[in-house]
Amino acid sequence: MIDYENLRKANEPFFDEYRRSFSRLLDSGWFILGNAVKKFETEFAAYNGNKECIGVANGLDALILCLRALKFEKGSEVIVPSNTYIATILSILQCDLVPVLVEPDIATYNIDPSRIAAAITPRTKAVMVVHLYGKACAMDPIMEIVRTHGLALIEDCAQSHGARYKGRMTGTFGYGAFSFYPTKNLGCLGDGGAVTTDDAEFARAIRMLRNYGSEKKYYNEVVGYNSRLDEVQAGFLSVKLGHLDAITEHKRALAALYQEGLKEDFIKPQFHPDHFDVFHIYNIRHPRRDALKEYLLTNGIRTEVHYPVPPHKQRAMDGVLVRGEFPISEEIHATTLSLPISYCHMESDVRQVIEVMNRF
Ligand SMILES: *Cc1c(COP(=O)(O)O)cnc(C)c1O
Q: Which of 179, 186, 227, 307 to mutate to test the pocket of ligand 1 (most atoms within 8 A of CB)?
């Protein structure tokens, strides 16, 4: 059986380092916002090329705190891709703002920059891009639009740790919101998240918001949250960050095998020299996706669908989202299939997947 993901196997190479990190924490006796969080924040800011990194509780909170720090008036509109994971849209709703869904480019699965301008109204305050599957969005045209219209830019980097556009890391174009959920490329062993920025004032606002709105203990400046990155997870993240480039290279090598080996019946991701992709997910599309998934399972290969239901068709969005037509998003959701591409997989696993798929 080839699993889609096996978190025990994917983390096993780091167990000794994790244990040493956990022992140090036990000995320190300091369990909230201590040296481990500070150390990871410094390391991740340096890795990314940001001046500031603020550890928070999870990726959803990273997005919410960014929106809170920007203090948009209630009912302001935020442009977001129609094919993202639900968390992106939830962050907008949790802040009493209005998500305006814009269709993706079917060649990249990322928001189509040529469709953004038509969605801008006098109430638009921000664009929230998502670097989906580990591919950076086309940032040149997006930066042009946000500059022209004076909009804030928030990047959902939950799937894009280490991904680059024209050599520049995701999370450095606007306000970066990261998730360290265990399956992400930089995943911890529980929940975790971070915000990245070069703006010292914005960073200060996020630091306050994550910690009850206070900078000085028992003195509260703003209405805040309890959304802190945990010391235990920060320690594990420092360990993992030291191996992130190796994890990325491993995934890129597996993706290259798929790209070369899979027959042309499958619509494969497009590679472009401007984009350094990190393959949080390697997906193909096929008109008979469900039959293909079933066939692979019968042959001992587990796959996933990211995602089976588009946000605008989720029951939770009944009466919440303005209903619209999103045929590109629906096409992607109906045909996409994610293939095994974890640090736990070997090239022989991928060769086996290719061999079975090419017999479909
Ligand atoms: C995982 C994910 C999130 C949410 O991260 P959590 O840490 O689970 O809250 C947000 N956006 C995208 C695109 C994601 O993949």
A: 179
Structural domain of 314 = 244-357
17: closest CA among 240, 247, 231? 240
Please name the residue that has the structure tokens 């174009």.
173
Residues 265-317: tens digit of each pLDDT? 999 999 999 999 999 999 999 999 999 999 999 999 999 999 999 999 999 99
What total of structural domains would you count in the chain? 2
Residue 125 sits in the same domain as residue 265? no
Say if residue 199 is in the same domain as residue 124. yes
**Residue 107 included in any domain:** no
- Would the pTM count as exceeding 0.90? yes
pLDDT in the model for residue 322 = 77
Please indicate, yes or no, if residue 2 is contained in any of the structural domains: no
CA 62 to ligand 1: nearest atom:
9
CB of 59 closer than 6 angstroms to any ligand 1 atom? yes
Residue with tokens 């090239």: 347
pLDDT tens figures, 183-212 = 999 999 999 999 999 999 999 999 999 999
Mean pLDDT confidence for 111-129: 98
Bridge-based pairing state of the strands 175-179 and 152-156 = parallel
CATH number at residue 257: 3.90.1150.10
Identify the band that residue 323 occupies on the pLDDT scale cut at 50, 70 and 90.
Answer: confident
Instruction: List C-alpha distances in Å: 39 to 35, 187, 192, 239.
Output: 6, 17, 15, 11
Given 241, 265, 288, which residue is the final one in a domain? 241
* Terminal-to-terminal C-alpha distance of the chain: 18
> Ligand 1, closest atom to CA 91?
10
CATH code for the domain of 134:
3.40.640.10
Residue where a domain terminates, one of 223, 241, 259:
241
Does the residue 161 lie in any domain?
yes
Supply 276's token pair: 């350094």
Residue 55 predicted with pLDDT over 90: yes
Please tell me the residue having the least CA distance from ligand 1 atom 4. Answer: 59
